[in-house]
Amino acid sequence: MAKKTATKKKSAARKSAKTSSKKAVVRKGAAAAKPAKTTVKKVALRRPRGPAWQWSAVDTAAAIRSGSISAVETVEAHLARMHAVNPRLNAVVVDLGEEALKSAHAADKQRAKGGELGLLHGVPITIKENVDYEGRPNFNGVPANKDLVAPSDSPVVRNLKKAGAIVLGLTNTPEFSFRGFTDNPLHGLTLNPWDPNITCGGSSGGAGSAVAAGIGTIAHGNDIGGSLRWPAHCNGVATIKPTQGRIPAFNGSAVTERPMLAHLMSAQGPLARHVGDVRLALEVMSQRDPRDPWWVPAPLVGPKPKRPIKVALAKIPEDMAVDPHVAAALRQAADHLERSGYRVSEVEVPDINGVWQTWCDIITNETVVMQEAGMLKVTSEDFHKAWNGMKTKANALDLPAWMRATAARNGHIRAWQLFFEEYPVVLAPTTVKPTPGPRDDTVSAERVKEIFWGEIRFISAINVLGLPGAVVPVTVHDGQPIGVQLIAGRYREDLALDAAAAIEKRAGVLTHQLWKTMA
């Protein structure tokens, strides 16, 4: 009987979150509107089960709105969890606990007055330490950046705060957020809460490690070559890398503007334990900010595809040796989708090898011209090893070759958009191998090339296309989580997240297993 009641509660919470999301986005130009808010109701809801730090963001927001828990009590629970587990993990590197408690007291006073509250009113979150947080240096993992003090909050921080979210702390990132492994001379190595012998990923490794361990309900991160999806896979949590232009971005502390292609391939986004929380965070993060000229007021929900929705299970190139447990997880995810009403077929996606090579060539050459000399002056030997490894697979481009590469990008995007006409969702691996060690990118240049080209090819390739990609955990093998990637057409994050939610419904939320082992 208790099990049925808990199931009904979870179903109601998901339905409520979905309904709330739809109400905020069905209007034309809804993304350009003021952040969605909710009106306080006097009906008290029963508290979710377990300690408050284990609750989803959706449940936490509902509990605070109903008065079944205060923002102060919620933040205190998350801070206690952070102080208990973070010393071992080193995921949160700037403790904003004192500031968070002040914000929580203010949130409770605001609620007591009645009226409308933001979608994340009183909900604890974390922010990655490579976006501007007003009054603090934007270190981005580099000690030399101590003077880059943020004059204002970045758009994503501003949007989260406007929605009522409370920031517990800032999470770790590698130097210049340029590695797939989270370590730097300023804060040190961040560990994976599942296993200290595997990486927590990068560059949003601190974010992934924190939210998996129960520090905050939502973690902010960003992604230019896999930096949201890779940590989500490594830490057994969910994420969405949105379409470029979906979530506004800007750092007033930056001394120069970002180059064109780096901007077009980069995206801000959330990591969370629940797909419903990812969807809620996306809605909040994607509100307009005039400082980003590339922001697009696209609706968060698009037209429904013809049913049953066809899913392409991406054929893996022959030169990628797939671990049998990864292959099994992909088949398991495909089965979950089939049982949820999708129709899955294994097919070849448009030129994944050429797409990845275009990403590698463009980002490497642009970085060499615009940033390399300055970065190498202020970074560690580990950074040099990792960066040199990333360059080994890139072709050196002169100006005509650069122009041809950027033109090829357009062709790749067109091919994928046409592919989505028949298959609205692509199911692909995050990596085809077990998660590597915490410093594997410092072993050799050959090892770095092996990781990016031979293992996570399906992650980095998607950035050059600017497409949305979700990651959802599927299973745990030998104490290590395995996730899969769901890719959809431009501004169709809803399709990728719907498929991720269908998988999560059958696979479960894997961090519940993690917490038992951590205890």
Please provide a written account of the structure.
It is a single chain. The protein has 519 residues and is of the alpha/beta class. Helix content is 44%, strand content 13%. The strands form two sheets. It has an eleven-stranded mixed sheet, with helices on both faces. Strands 1-3 form a two-stranded antiparallel sheet. The protein is built from 18 helices and 13 strands. Strand 9, helix 10 and strand 10 form a beta-alpha-beta unit.
Distance between the termini: 27 Å
The count of β-strands is 13
* Helical fraction: 40-55%
Largest sheet, strands/sense/barrel? 11 strands, mixed
Sheet with most strands: strand arrangement: 2-5-4-6-8-7-12-13-11-9-10
Number of helices: 18
**Shape assignment:** globular
Unreliable sequence segments: 1-33, 39-43
What is the residue-mean pLDDT, rounded to a whole number? 93
* CA-based gyration radius: 21 Å
- Strand-pairing-aware structural class: alpha/beta
Strand content is: 5-15%
